[in-house]
Amino acid sequence: MRRVTLHEPVTWMAPASRWIGLFAVVVMLFGLGLLRFGHVDLPDALAVLTVAPAIALLAVLLALLAFVVIWRDGARGLGAALAGIVLALVVLAGPAYVLVEGLRAHRPQDVATDVARPPAFSLSRAALAARHGVTPSLAPGVVRQASIPGRGVVEPLDLDVPMAPAFNAALKVARDLGWDVVEAIPGKGRVGIGRIDAVDHTPILRLPVDITIRFTPRAQGVRVDVRTVVRHGIADFALAVGAERIEQFLDALSDATDESAEGSAS
């Protein structure tokens, strides 16, 4: 008696979902690599990252259609369809997180310690070159007050030290934080305003963040105001791109000047 082997059909959509999901992961990693190591212009790298979620959604769609066929016809391919779903979720998790955080926290991308008179960015040739020709606007309503949810407004820093030591300490703090200092103009005299322009990058995607620091002389010291702008209006998973960055700098500057004053006193 001859044995008859029955072959259960396999829906093509299940393995297709798995391979497309894997391709989406590869595209995402490729785009992240382009951003992280800066081998191409930022818009081109972001375009690659935009394609990855679209490919992942296609993998999800094929997996869902495969589930329907498997349920209706008893076809094989459940494992491949589940793999496609998992791979797609890996790609979609990042954009979903950024979207939810943006809606929840409402973090503005152009923040300063002084909204009434926000620090202006330098228009020198070196500064414009470092910002690739971008000059953040000073139009009313564009710059938002630097504030941290749950901790309140980030205030300007008033230092009871002369302009020169305050400026030099700020320059050192900026470099210690890893900022690329583009221009540094110390204030001179009782009315001279000092300025430091710098560029930082977000930790994961290396998105550029433009920073300007203004030093205004006072009767007994210096007032320090800071403004930061995410150049392309987006943030990555490290959302400390505005007020948190300003607070980190001002806290470090305050500590540095306190230590310098204590050293001079001793």
Largest sheet: 7 strands, mixed
Annotated CATH architecture of the largest domain: 2-Layer Sandwich
Instruction: Write down the secondary-structure element order.
Output: HHHEHEEEEHEEEEH
- What structural class do helix, strand and pairing data support? alpha+beta
Radius of gyration: 26 Å
From the spread of the alpha carbons, the general shape counts as elongated
CATH class of the largest domain: Alpha Beta
Low-pLDDT stretches are none
With helices defined by DSSP (H or I, 4 residues minimum), what is the helix count? Answer: 6
* Named CATH topology of the largest domain: TATA-Binding Protein
CATH superfamily of the largest domain: Kinase associated domain 1, KA1
Helical content class: 40-55%
Alpha-carbon distance between the two ends: 104 Å
Number of domains: 2
Mean pLDDT: 82
Number of E strands: 9
Strand content: 15-25%
InterPro entries: DUF1499
Keywords: Membrane, Transmembrane, Transmembrane helix
Pfam families: DUF1499
Topology:
Blueprint: H1 13-37, H2 42-73, H3 78-105, E1 110-112, H4 125-130, E2 144-145, E3 147-148, E4 152-153, E5 157-159, H5 163-176, E6 180-185, E7 194-201, E8 208-218, E9 221-230, H6 243-265
Parallel strand pairs: 1-2
Antiparallel strand pairs: 1-9, 3-4, 5-9, 6-7, 7-8, 8-9
